[in-house]
Amino acid sequence: MIDKSLGLQLRQALDLPRVARRVGGRPYEAANVDAWDEVPNSTWFTNRNGRFPMSPDAVHRGPTRGAGPDTTGPWTVVTVKSDGVTPGMIIDDVQGDRYLLKFDPVGFSGLASGADVVGSRLFHAAGYNVPENYVAYLDPDRLVLAEDAMIQESTPDKRPPMRERLLRRQELAAALARVNSEGTPRVRVLASRYLPGKPLGPWPYEGVRDGDANDVYPHEHRREIRGLYVVASWLNHADLKEENTLDMYDPEAGIVIHYLIDFGAALGSNSRRPSNPRRGQANSIDVRDSLVRLATLGLYVHDYERAPCSVPYPAVGYLGNELFQPWAWKPMYPVPAFENLTARDAFWGARIVTSFTEEQIGAAVAAARFDDPEAAAALTRFLVERRDCIGRYWFSRTDPLDAFKLEGERLGFVDLAVARGLAPEGAAAYEYVVYAPSGKVLGRGSVTEPELDLPGDWRRGGGAMVSLQPRRSGLSCAPVLVYLGPGTAEGSWEVIGLRRLD
Amino acid sequence: MTRFSPLAGLLVTALLLPAAVAGRAAGLDPTAAAQADSLAVDGRPQLVHYRSRLESALALPGRVVYAPLGGVLYVLSWSVSDLYERHALDHMKELLTTADGRIGVRPLANTGIGTGFRLFHRDFLAGADWDLTSSFGRSVDDRQHHLLELAWHGVGRPGRLLFTLDFSREPDESYYGIGNGSLAGDRTRFRQEETRAQLVYRCGTVRWLIVTARIEGASTSIGAPRYGDAPATTGVYPGDQLLDLAGPNRVVGAAVALQTSLVDVRGSPTHGNNARLDAGLYRDLDGSLSYASFNAVTEQFFELFYRRTASLRLGLDWRPALGGGEVPVYSMASVGGNLFVRGYQRGRFRDRGAAFGALIYRFPVARCLDGGVFYESGRTFRDPADLSLGGWHDSYGGGLRIWVPKGLVFQLLAALSDEEHRILFSFSTDF
Fold this sequence. Notes:
Chain A contains 14 helices and 18 strands.
């Protein structure tokens, strides 16, 4: 925490070339993007809803391959984590599948489990690797103790457990009694299926993983991690410390797969209690805010200190969007990749976030199986409002034109701001200039529809570059450059690259 | 105001300009320079360098400057990680405790006295516990403090009966002259040894109220300090105030105390009140010392806005002599020290009575870290009729405090007065 909060910021402040680039408006761009400014599929990320719209059923299902722990037989308890507050459990079902069970805080049924499930569905649909998370119902009578079942003795804070020793039956009963004081026959839990492979530990947030020959891009300069800032801000997943990531080694394929885990403190949840207005507004140790308070003797009051914290639906926690500013969202601990975010990275993330329809968001929320439909509706509204806020901001900072397609002499494109309902249709003019490879201007003009006819002689120089820039009230952005050239098939021509300018 | 040095400006520009130029050149095609360094070797991809060799070289000075800072942060992180996340202190406690947790020893370090240890044995007899705390200075002639406590729980249901036997030796105890007008130069040193036995009954009937009743006997002797001659006291202490210095004084007494805590968060209150009342009677077995003791301290908290809190702290301590007796100089009320009117040394003003008030403003800096500023004033008096608006001694300052919901963990303060500037730190005080 000390290194994340202080060391990183000191290192960045003393990195002269980095400082000079940011001052000069030329920050380091992401190192692993292709000619279309896209991220190829990899062990880090798979292009899903942002590029290929998923059905609501697919979003609802997420990465899950079944229905969760098999309830036709007993659940064998392997380990119990006991910190005196809320226990956790590792069980094997009759199929031999291992699950980590986590309980909701008392009085807030659905809070952490719901956040974990909804978060996992949306991160998965966004393209990230996540575990299979299920909402399940534990029947205490179904639990049996493994012969070598262990208990992890922890303290009532977030420190690693002190030790492990053999679990006694009465300790299991006591742990269950803490989360089921009323003795209900079914206790709601989050069941997270163990990831396949051998765990290697969290991703390092800086540099690469030693020993992974495929890990060649420094993580702080990977587009999918930088762009994670926007997706995480959407879901208010501020608990993005390294320990909430996991590398798993697949011995058959001989590769390391990189996962995001533990979303119990996302959305309106803070794991053990509802979230609060400060979440997403300040780091856990926010040096700048602390210095401001110290220098002003506390007379300066930040907005998040003033904001009321109302929780009308305990199952979904605190859902406040009044303070949300997409450009100013802060995780609990500074993340090196987020500190390197550029407008292109943010556009990439915003395109993913705004690709989600209300129906898809509702399908992800439905996976959490909230008992209160009003709570589910409130969470859906929260996510929709936040999505639109993100889209309006980032699509006004970078050229929102995308999905370029060459058909004959006509170049078509999509204005994402219009397509996603964030800007009025027909209110923009798209100014274009067509250049030959020599730099000669072949044509220029303005269109009101998202398509333009290229000048007849554009192929003569072996290709062309088209500069496209929308003009619309409230939009201030540099143009996007679209490169046209010979395609892979004989005699074909296609879009061969693009570049978004700052 | 700091003036910008042209030389410094030239140096900064000389360092940054090439980086800016390199940045601009590389920015035209950011991946080309990087990928030029990432040629596959034997078909295996090589690490991609996201910046050119020139930029890497220009980053070197910053890394050199960061190295010692990074080393400190690394050691700090590692220490915190070891102590906190790996439960080093918890494991050490377990090593020093029997498996059932009933018997153990703990090391102690106290800047006031020295180092020492605490032995304890829970439930050793009929549900009683005992604790022996000993602190030593550098030698047996140096400071010592030994406290033996026997405690029986559940007496009178929510109550606890305590027997304590306490021995302390202070080879160089400082005393200033008696009276509100005593001068800073009126300072003497005594060697003081005290043995005290107390029987205390403590009862918390409700969570916010603790009632304590105690009877005690103490034997105190004052003599020449460790270094130097016998104290020259006549110039400082009039003869009739030195009844206690002729030989060991054996005093018995009885007292009752009430302590209330009606605050929202003990570690950083924003609403409510803490208060303590104590009243007792004391008498020398020889009959020459006889006095009463009344002590009242209260602190009221007011939230101004968003956890910015003002508190008013008032205290009165009065030890009237009874039946022609006198109050021992070492038992007199005083202002100065770590709790009240902190800009002065402990016991700076001493008499039969003392009064003080403090206004404190506290504000949050970070999670569990508060800042605060205070103004306080106090004086001593021989008789309550002597109290007036004049003669008060002022002190002011500020500092930081670390807290947890159960109480204060640590505070570091700077306190100023017209005599001196003091830096204080303290742990776990109620006030």
